[in-house]
Amino acid sequence: MPRMLLVPDKRGWIFDFLCTYEAEGLRKRGWYVDIVFQEDNYSTPLPSSQYDIVFNPNYSPRQFERQFHGRLVRGIFGHKWAWTENPRRALDKSLRGACAVIVPNRELLSMISWYFPNTFQVTEGTDAQIFRFEHHNMGDQLIAAWTGDPKHTWKGLQDILLPACERVNVRLRIASDLSREELNRFYNSVDVVLVATKNEGSPNCVFEAGACGRPVIGTRAGIIPEAIVDGRNGFIVERSIEAFAEKLQWCKVNKEKLREMGMVHREVVLRKYTIQEHTRQFCGLMEKLLTDVHSCKRAKPEKSFVTGVKHLGKKVIRRFL
């Protein structure tokens, strides 16, 4: 029986939910799975030598990396490393101790796989039994929504979204620290969800909003260009007050079309971005890695990382500005 350890960061956060579904999927395939949390100081219920594979979606200390050397699968779920003063050092820190890496979107796959070939994309998803369409907002006033921690400045709430909504007189509802059931009711009370993130690789609100039949106006960050077809199930805009304000003004006078776009987005999410699809991809990858995880070797880069980052800076990284 294969034995796996999953190490999310904190209880009640997104990786807690994802790891719970991943564990359930692996157990159905005959695996033994334990889950421990980084906030518990990495204590494990069994000796580390008894695990065949360990998945850690977050940063972990060197002691932990040495403990699971040769069996550690890491996750890189954001683009923050690419904005640091020394991208190579930041990426190497994220890759440290890994025999394989999981990323959530094609952008990160292209940015990392040429440097670390054992990189795999596993798209994230949402639970459509919790997040579901209930009703449209039939009021005359357009209501936009934003979810997250307002203290995270890279999400663009204070400097982009609030001024954009004020410019075109659109009400912006903000959700923070809600349960998933409360979030479902929140999404069903609004018309459109705004995403101005700079760093996130897979903003979960994109999938949650879609499952609730709400379109998204978002930047080109992370999974958004894959999940959103501009003008069909949402809009992709530049990361500026003017760009968001322009689309919000369109939404104000096209509410019926906006509702239709929301239902198209729901179809996209139910087809491609459910938690069941995420679990299927994750479990399939773990079974693939099981056969060679002990012999995984980090490949040497064929070209300078700095040269590659400069090239990507023109082609990819500036797209997040």
Q: Regarding CATH, which class of the largest domain? A: Alpha Beta
Arrangement of strands in the largest sheet: 2-1-3-4-5-6
User: What is the radius of gyration?
Assistant: 20 Å
**Count of individual helical segments:** 12
What fold name stands as the CATH topology of the largest domain?
Rossmann fold
Counting helices, strands and paired strands, the structural category is alpha/beta
**CATH architectural name of the largest domain:** 3-Layer(aba) Sandwich
Strand content: 5-15%
From N to C, what is the helix and strand string? EHEEHEHEHEEHEHEHEHEHHHH
- Number of separate structural domains: 2
Descriptive overview:
By secondary structure, this protein is of the alpha/beta class. It folds into two domains: 169 residues, Rossmann fold (3-Layer(aba) Sandwich), CATH 3.40.50; 130 residues, Rossmann fold (3-Layer(aba) Sandwich). The protein has twelve helices and eleven strands. The strands form two sheets. It has a six-stranded parallel beta sheet. The protein has a five-stranded parallel beta sheet with strand order 8-7-9-10-11, sandwiched between helices. The relative contact order is 0.14.
Outline:
This protein has helices at 14-28, 62-67, 87-95, 106-112, 157-167, 180-187, 204-211, 224-227, 241-253, 255-272, 275-290, 305-315; strands spanning 3-6, 32-35, 53-56, 72-75, 100-103, 119-121, 143-147, 171-175, 192-195, 216-218, 234-236.
